[in-house]
Design a protein that fits this description.
This protein is of the alpha/beta class. It is built from twelve helices and ten strands. The strands form two sheets. An eight-stranded parallel beta sheet has the order 6-5-4-3-2-1-8-7. The protein has a two-stranded antiparallel sheet with strand order 9-10. The model has no long low-confidence stretch (mean pLDDT 94).
Length: 283
């Protein structure tokens, strides 16, 4: 889940193009990208897209739980071909439990394996961030969450700068609470300035360093950069392989700490190297 590309659900050509790209996932949008007057009609376009071939997973961002469209969105799209739902502006644990309950009943009704539809909430308000620990421990099918900086900075009255230093404590909280709750690493926010591809790369690399597993994208040109940022380069993979091999040899001789190229190596370093090798399988 290194890259998830948004595509407006009401634009058939963009939807078809998005499904052919090398993003790990595509998010067909029924929320912000669709005008109020088109929200209901767009569901049929999204449902049709569920039957199309795709290179990655296919998600749909529905409208928020507090809107008049959320239930209709979910009822329309839960069917074969749907990998998961993106649920925006989550602030309350009961919102996740209600959605989980609805998905379970729709899966049973429509002959889908219970729990097969993934659920990714976007935490993007001050209230949502303040309840992050409880949201991560909701006891639902949620395996990972996403952080949305656009709505969050708007809600906070905060200036979203190019360097994104103002986001650091909130990004870090998403990673920490996800780990503490034994969820997968979270997904990072979009990068809104399409005129600044270097800024996007820096943002993605920073998110990867903080412990995120991937980034949401709003333009096809961002996919390659996101995939690269969340995949170890060949030099890192080669180093990790040497660390694991050297430590395995030392451990066979009863040693649990060694030096390699001037670096101290013990179990935590080896575990990190093994993670790098696992991530390197994407290369």
């Amino acid at each position: 889940m290194r890259s998830l590309l948004f595509a407006p659900g009401n634009h058939k050509r963009r939807v078809e193009n998005a499904l052919s790209l090398l993003a790990d996932g595509v998010i067909l949008d029924l929320e912000d990208a669709v005008a109020i007057s088109e929200k209901t009609a767009t569901r049929s376009i999204v449902v049709e897209a569920l039957t199309k071939p795709r290179t990655g997973k296919l998600y749909v961002r529905v409208n928020g739980m507090t809107t008049e469209w959320c239930h209709g969105d979910i009822a329309a799209i839960v069917r074969p071909g749907l990998d998961g739902i993106i649920l925006p502006k989550i602030e309350q644990v009961h919102e996740l439990r209600m959605t989980d309950w609805l998905l379970t009943n729709l899966e049973r009704e429509r002959g889908l394996p219970v729990g097969s539809v993934d659920l990714i909430p976007i935490v993007e308000t001050a209230l949502g961030l303040s309840r992050l620990a409880r949201l991560c421990r909701s006891g639902t099918r949620v395996r990972r969450l996403a952080f949305g900086a656009g709505d969050f900075t708007l809600d906070m009255g905060m200036v979203w700068t190019r360097g994104e230093a103002e986001l650091l404590p909130f990004r870090s909280a998403c990673v920490m609470e996800s780990r503490a709750a034994r969820l997968e690493p979270p997904l990072d926010t979009i990068w809104a300035d399409l005129r600044d591809p270097d800024g996007f790369i820096a943002s993605a690399r920073h998110a990867a360093a903080l412990g995120f597993q991937g980034k949401m994208c709003i333009h096809p040109d961002q996919i390659a950069g996101a995939n690269a940022a969340f995949t170890p380069d060949q030099e890192a993979v080669d180093k990790a392989r040497r660390i694991v091999a050297a430590f395995d040899a030392a451990e066979a001789q009863g040693l649990a700490s060694i030096q390699l190229d001037g670096q101290f190596i013990d179990y935590p370093i080896v575990e990190r190297a093994k993670r790098v090798l696992a991530q390197g399988d994407h290369r």
